[in-house]
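Q: I'm a student working through a structural biology exercise. My instructor gave each of us a protein and asked us to get a predicted structure, then write a short paragraph describing it. Mine is LOG family protein YvdD. I'm not confident about reading structure output yet, so if you can add a plain explanation after the tokens, that would really help. Here is the sequence I was given:
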Amino acid sequence: MGVTAPPLFPTRKGPNDHVDLEIPAPTLLTRIERLLDVAVGYLVLPGGVGTLTELMAAWNVAMIAQMHGLPYRPIGVHAGWMELLRPQLEIAPAHLELLSVLGSLEDVETFLSGLPR
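A: Happy to help. First, here is the predicted structure for LOG family protein YvdD. I'll explain a few features afterward.
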């Protein structure tokens, strides 16, 4: 499944080959909101500013849920993101624990196999 924003990227020829169901959104913020609504978990691989934005949104939603004692969706992050996050931000240990750091393909497989179907 992929939540896309065709108006933002008119030269793209649709979603990538791994997407079996496309959910188009008219704007970036709508795309992120839909992504947060429909996902059962988040796998954050290396990327750019857009990926960082999506990570921050998912992480913030998880932090708020945790504050209220509510369940939150798992967030698996490529280990490379931690090099950016840890030294640059003031992050409470409880908030770091919301992220599953994935350093290998086996870590990714374990994370994905633990998501609800």
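A: Here are two points you could use in your paragraph. The chain is about 45% helix and 15% strand. The first strand starts at residue 2 and ends at 4. It's a good idea to check both against the output above yourself.
Q: Great, thank you!
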